[in-house]
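Newbie here. two chains, one complex. Structure please?
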Amino acid sequence: MSDDTKRSKPSEKMIELRLPSKLGYERVAMDAAASLASRMGFETDRVSALKTAVSEAVTNAIEHGNQHDEAMKVVVLLTVRGDELIVSVTDQGHKTIDEAYVSRVPQISEAMKRDDKGGWGIWLIQELMDEVEFTTAPSGGNQVRMVIHLER
Amino acid sequence: MHNGQTSIELIFPSILGYEIIARRVVATFANFVGFDQARIDDLKTAVSEACINAIEHGNQLQPHLPVYITSSYDGHRFAVEVSDTGTNPLAIIKEPKTIEEKLAGAASLRGMGMMLMAALADEFIVEPSAAPGNTVRLIWYQCEVAHT
């Protein structure tokens, strides 16, 4: 159990998921987040947005943070706090996220000229979630904290 | 193609309904490593039962007590361990009542979980955890185990 899980407040409900750094396992995190969000009452389109954001965050952690090292874990924390769902994705920090990527807005015209059409993940996460924060976890890895609010 | 052992871990609070999330996580994992839908349906039912037992009996419905799940796959054997942190041992009923007896009112309508898990998994073990609590171990093999 991570330190964050131990620190959860009585009013919070926290789920911790630890995944191997292998592409494809992001689907496990997507389905866990979707299942919890549906239970909280989020509409289908919001659940779809959450799944996309979680998929991008976990894929980034596997590919960049943990450099596909299957022995390294990606930790996904899902916290229910009132009407908001907080999703935190942490890698073990083989490689830190370049700050320029966090504020960059990718251009489709430029992307189409490149062989590699990637590089949209961080922008997508920021577009889809209500709050997004990129930090360094106490363990030293990259941490993406995403919040989605339930509108009633 | 699967190489080596892979595992995932899940920790969730002892709240009824959260077993649905656990069930989905394990089912997605099983689907990813190539289990067919019929086996996944068995697995989902058995994992749900193990989680509900852990929440209700082992952890006595205390939300702050976590339920731990470790699921692993080595290319052949898919294992799910569900552990609670309570001190209430899970009783194994040696001679369970039949469904007919239960429907006739001779026994509680509850208490079918252990039988279900034993019937649905290739191997089913209940044992005390190293730490206080109980561990239910459910195992499925990718190829059916030959019964003699």
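Moderator note: The interface with chain A takes residues 4, 6-13, 15, 17-18, 20-21, 24-25, 28-29, 32, 63-64, 66 of chain B (CB under 8 Å). DSSP finds four helices and five strands in chain B. Thread marked as resolved.
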